[in-house]
Amino acid sequence: MTNKFRKLIALLQSFGEYGAEYLNKKLFNKSLPVKPLHDDLYLVSFPKSGTTWLNFLMANIHLRMSGSSQLVTFYNINDFIPDIEYVRNLKANILTFPGYRVIKSHSEFNPFYNKVIYLIRDPRDIMVSYYYFLKNLGAFKEGLSQLIHSPRYGIRAWCRHVQGWVEKTPASTSIDFLRYEDMKTEPGQVLTRIYNLLGHMIPEEVMAQAIQSSSFENMKKLETEYNYGGDFRFPGFEFVRKGKSGTYKEEISKEDLDFITATAGPWLSRFGYSPSQE
């Protein structure tokens, strides 16, 4: 932090609550729309927790409930549930349902998010999925063990992300925590829970269509079409890789699993993940 920046922070803090609010907005504006709305709903997770799948499920429901026959693809998903990391200048919601914007975010705790659905996934599976994702992008050159120990990408980053949303979220913020593994097992139940919380009833046939349209097989097919068969846009890159739970047992060494348990054990237990490696 430069001396100039420190002086700016000190000046803003001298204005009391107004300066603090302005400073907070400056610090968090990268994970906020250019024009935030009070009823924006944020789908938040650590990267590779399954939020893209949740986006597809919800976008398909919103299209059906809006009376549209349009299909959700990797090309147009941001038109319906934009990713705040890539699009900050958001349009007004183009669908009649649910009547407010739904936004994807990987932000650490942001005090300006008023409504949050937070998706949790076993961090051991996340480490494996995130490693292949970053490796295929060319963004991480080292091995899986190095990623697990990385302060930026690894298990400590995951703990910081989860802890921030659990411990810093004020009572005035509407937040609900959902598990990816439950969504894999019973997607209909998890989606029903989400929309019940939001005050919406989704017809069974709409739910079934959304689940079918967002199946793993269909998303793999959609990704292949988006990548022009893997020969043009992102050769060799797979965003939708396996989507399974427990594959970390085949990929992560005992030493690294011990490190993850020592670092994230309390959070594993809190969200129902056994710290045991069996």
Question: What labels describe this entry?
Answer:
alpha/beta, Rossmann fold
Span between termini: 45 Å
Shape: globular
Regions with pLDDT < 50 over 5+ consecutive residues? none
Largest beta sheet, briefly?
4 strands, parallel
How are the strands ordered across the major sheet? 2-1-3-4
The number of E-state strands comes to 4
Order of helices and strands: HHEHHEEHHHEHHHHHH
- Fourth-level CATH superfamily of the largest domain: P-loop containing nucleotide triphosphate hydrolases
What report would you give on this structure?
It is a single chain. With 278 residues, this protein is an alpha/beta fold. It is globular and about 50 Å long. Strands 2-1-3-4 form a 4-stranded parallel beta sheet. It has 2 domains: 30 residues, no CATH class; 239 residues, Rossmann fold (3-Layer(aba) Sandwich), CATH 3.40.50. The chain starts with a helix and ends in an 8-residue tail after the last helix. The protein is built from 13 helices and 4 strands. Helices cover 49% and strands 7% of the residues. The mean pLDDT is 86.
